[in-house]
Amino acid sequence: MINCIIVDDEQHAIDILTHYVAQTPQLTLVGSTTNPIEALQLVTTQKAELVFLDIQMPELSGIDFIKALNGKAKVILTTAYSEFALESYELDVVDYLLKPIRLPRFLAAVQKAVKDLGEEEVASQPLAAEDDYIFVKTESKGKLLKINLADIDYIEGMKNYVAIYRAGQKTLVYTSMKEIEERLPSPLFIRVHKSFIIPVPRITGIEGNMVKLEGVTAEILIGDSYKADLMEIIRHKMIQ
């Protein structure tokens, strides 16, 4: 387990990262603060190994914080500004996350950190037995259906419903894309469009603005706002 802290001058940003950390088995949150001076103390008192750090903060900038930290912990920078990327990498940060940060991109950054710290990678974590299926409410009133995650070809949003496709069979579920996205294990599933969630192991290729899935003939579009997270996963497996 990696002890981590969150440092950001906006409580809302802290709340989002706290939620993400809670979904990541390799991480234990040992503190959070809007005060970078207090954060330097937390690194020592809580034996933090990883810091999620905002760059733009009063009193002490993220860059100055890293210099003051002097290598005592690994750092993942979180910011709404891209212009600090080059300088931050010169300071040997683990990764540089642009806000708004989505969970798949967060997990990709954590994978880099756990590798640096000698921990087991997030993506290699098998699903626990109790996590390899979900129960959903179907269009039939009062009916619950068990769906094995390994059987899911892809998921498509349809107004007030989502359609879960399995071996050519479509199951309509009364829920939102956001809700089902949060319930699925994010290292294995990724949202690639406002209307599509796909299982990462089924990806066979990318063609323009479409992702190809094993055994699926439907056109799965890649949304502009989701493409960076998808390509980050692809890059981890890419041979240059």
From TrEMBL:
Annotated keywords: Phosphoprotein
Protein name (database record): Two component transcriptional regulator, LytTR family
PANTHER family, per the entry: STAGE 0 SPORULATION PROTEIN A HOMOLOG, TRANSCRIPTIONAL REGULATOR-RELATED
Cross-referenced SMART domains: LytTR (SM00850), REC (SM00448)
The species this protein was found in: Flavisolibacter ginsengisoli DSM 18119
Record keyword Transmembrane helix present: no
SUPFAM superfamilies reported for this sequence: CheY-like (SSF52172)
Gene3D superfamilies on file: 3.40.50.2300, LytTr DNA-binding domain (2.40.50.1020)
Chain ranges of the HTH LytTR-type domain: 139-207
4-aspartylphosphate: residues carrying this PTM: 54
